Amino acid sequence: MQHYHISQISEQAFTFTTNLGCIYQCYFFDFSTAFAEYPNLASRVFGFNLELAYQPSAVKIGLDKRIAVTVTTILKAFLHENENVVVYICDNSDRREKARFHKFSNWFKIYNDGSIVQLRGVIRAGNTNILNTLLIHKDNPLLNDFIEAYEILTGIFTKPDDDELQNILNDPEW
């Protein structure tokens, strides 16, 4: 399946337009503060965001697999050419974070060519669970260092109960 035409706005920002005229913006941003305890890694950590910048008023967005292909293409290119990692945090302001997490994770299950390692996690902040994904190229020379830091930061080694991520993935509300 072919991705949509991608326009590069800057070194870390991209846009594409769907067949329905919806305009999406994808961008990477400094996320080093999340890895501040790991100064040798922090400068290589980027956040990622995908925004619907424009939707024609008469258009209902349905399932469009080319959006997934386009987003994964952008992410794979960013990770292939850089020795960086990307952290995707699922926005929880509208209580749709589980759907976002599921959709984003599935995009990589389906369209990843095996070059990107995807680690999914949950960060507990008080009573809030923050769903997130770390993406890293399998040939990144700091792969193991990033994985270890990510697992510690997301609390994988200190969870008091069964794996929260598995509980979320098996949530019948999905």
Tell me what the structure shows.
The protein has helices spanning 39-42, 65-81, 97-111, 143-153, 164-169, and strands at 6-10, 13-17, 23-30, 45-54, 85-89, 116-125, 128-137. It has a 7-stranded mixed β-sheet with strand order 1-2-3-4-5-7-6, with helices on both faces. Strand 2 (13-17) and strand 3 form a beta hairpin. The chain starts with 5 loop residues before the first strand and ends in a 5-residue tail after the last helix. The longest helix has 17 residues, at 65-81. By secondary structure, it is an alpha+beta fold. The protein is built from 5 helices and 7 strands. It has a single domain, classed as Aminopeptidase (3-Layer(aba) Sandwich). Residues 157-165 have low confidence and may be disordered. It is globular.
Architecture blueprint of SSEs:
Layout: E1 6-10, E2 13-17, E3 23-30, H1 39-42, E4 45-54, H2 65-81, E5 85-89, H3 97-111, E6 116-125, E7 128-137, H4 143-153, H5 164-169
Parallel strand pairs: 4-5
Antiparallel strand pairs: 1-2, 2-3, 3-4, 5-7, 6-7
Task: For the structure shown, list the relevant keywords.
single chain; 174 residues; alpha+beta; Aminopeptidase; seven-stranded mixed beta sheet; 5 helices; 7 strands; 30% strand; globular
Query: Judging from the principal axes of the Cα atoms, what is the shape?
Result: globular
CATH class: Alpha Beta
CATH topology: Aminopeptidase
CATH architecture: 3-Layer(aba) Sandwich
Order of strands, widest sheet: 1-2-3-4-5-7-6
How many domains is the backbone divided into? 1
Alpha plus pi helix count = 5
Q: What is the percent of helical residues? A: 25-40%
